């Protein structure tokens, strides 16, 4: 079934050229079914590119999905036009009375900063706390995953001596897990990050499960046992040339960068990269949406009445005391 996106969203033309069926608000409102409601908190600088990548994966589901785009108020985007933001994005304060079947929190290029030094950290804390009572399942990506693990469980990150950059083979820990159902025992995931999480701290949190990992770079997919919180350290949503563009961008800026691992054939940047992760990316998002569809309440406001899921708990339960006030 189609995804329902805002009228005239730039990603629509791109998706249609790829034979992905997307309908606009006017058409969707005539249908007599209950679509899934997904909100995307897009923290990436190039918002149109990230929108397209994520919508491409969501669209592979047979379910109709309504999409809202959320933005934080305490940060001014320099790489996306104000006109686009005004037209398609809504501040959290105007969405916080809504309920959603699912939420996606993207990565952000702020990993060199301490969490509390990020200019929108206080607002992001509020959003992540709100998600526990207003969202059935939240999917966190890359820095968003690190931030979520830190906020909910106090799991720290650390700077790596060398950037994790390339396409890495990940091994399934449990091949029969719901979220990775249908995955091969080895799957590939793009990574582009300067930081890593405290793996030992993850293992000590009883409600967290590691679903896939690489022995050299650590965990890739981490979930709570009820799938209410999902943390993905890599970038399943990346397009074929995303790492290529990043590599040449950093070269041009004279930043320290190595050829992405396992990406260019023969490690030759002049050769076209091979897309090795698309089928698993599609399957991951399809499994997630199917899970949400199966278990989220039909009357979406009922999400707020669900007892606090085992996938969250209090920060104090995990040895990280912090008072949160709305």
UniProtKB/TrEMBL annotation:
Q: Which SUPFAM superfamilies match?
A: Class I glutamine amidotransferase-like
**Gene symbol of the encoding locus:** metAA
Cite a single GO BP annotation: L-methionine biosynthetic process from homoserine via O-succinyl-L-homoserine and cystathionine
Binding positions for substrate? Answer: 163, 192, 249
Q: In which pathway does it act?
A: Amino-acid biosynthesis; L-methionine biosynthesis via de novo pathway; O-acetyl-L-homoserine from L-homoserine: step 1/1
Read off the Gene3D superfamilies from this record: 3.40.50.880
E.C. number(s) listed in UniProt: 2.3.1.31
Which CDD domains does the UniProt entry name for this protein? GATase1_HTS
The family assignment reads:
Belongs to the MetA family.
Q: Which Pfam families match?
A: HTS
Per UniProt, the keywords (alphabetical) are: Acyltransferase, Amino-acid biosynthesis, Cytoplasm, Methionine biosynthesis, Transferase
Q: What is this protein called?
A: Homoserine O-acetyltransferase
Which reaction does this chain catalyze?
Answer: L-homoserine + acetyl-CoA = O-acetyl-L-homoserine + CoA
């Amino acid at each position: 079934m189609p995804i329902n996106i805002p009228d005239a969203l730039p990603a629509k033309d791109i998706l249609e050229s790829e034979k992905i069926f997307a309908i606009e608000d006017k058409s969707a409102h005539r249908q007599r079914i209950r679509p899934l409601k997904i909100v995307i908190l897009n923290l990436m600088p190039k918002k149109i590119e990230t929108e397209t990548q994520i919508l491409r994966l969501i669209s592979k589901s047979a379910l109709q999905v309504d999409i809202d785009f959320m933005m934080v108020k305490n940060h001014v985007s320099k790489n996306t036009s104000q006109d686009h933001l005004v037209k398609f994005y809504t501040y959290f304060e105007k969405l916080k009375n809504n309920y959603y079947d699912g939420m996606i929190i993207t990565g952000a290029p702020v990993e060199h900063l301490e969490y509390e030094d990020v200019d929108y950290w206080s607002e992001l804390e509020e959003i992540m706390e709100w998600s526990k009572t207003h969202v059935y399942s939240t999917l966190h990506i890359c820095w968003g995953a690190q931030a979520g693990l830190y906020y909910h469980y106090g799991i720290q990150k650390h700077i790596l001596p060398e950037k994790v950059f390339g396409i890495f083979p990940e091994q399934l820990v449990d091949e029969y897990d719901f979220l990775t159902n249908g995955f091969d025992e080895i799957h590939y995931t793009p990574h582009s990050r300067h930081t890593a999480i405290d793996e030992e701290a993850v293992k000590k949190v009883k409600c967290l499960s590691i679903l896939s990992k690489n022995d050299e770079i650590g965990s890739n997919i981490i979930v709570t046992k009820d799938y209410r919180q999902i943390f993905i350290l890599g970038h399943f949503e990346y397009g074929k040339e995303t790492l290529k563009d990043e590599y040449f961008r950093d070269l041009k800026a004279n930043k320290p960068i190595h050829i992405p691992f396992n990406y260019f054939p023969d490690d030759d940047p002049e050769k076209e990269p091979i897309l090795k992760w698309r089928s698993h990316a599609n399957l991951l998002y399809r499994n997630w949406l199917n899970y949400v569809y199966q278990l989220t309440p039909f009357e979406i406001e009922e999400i707020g009445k669900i007892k606090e899921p085992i996938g969250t708990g209090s920060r104090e339960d995990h040895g990280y005391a912090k008072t949160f006030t709305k």
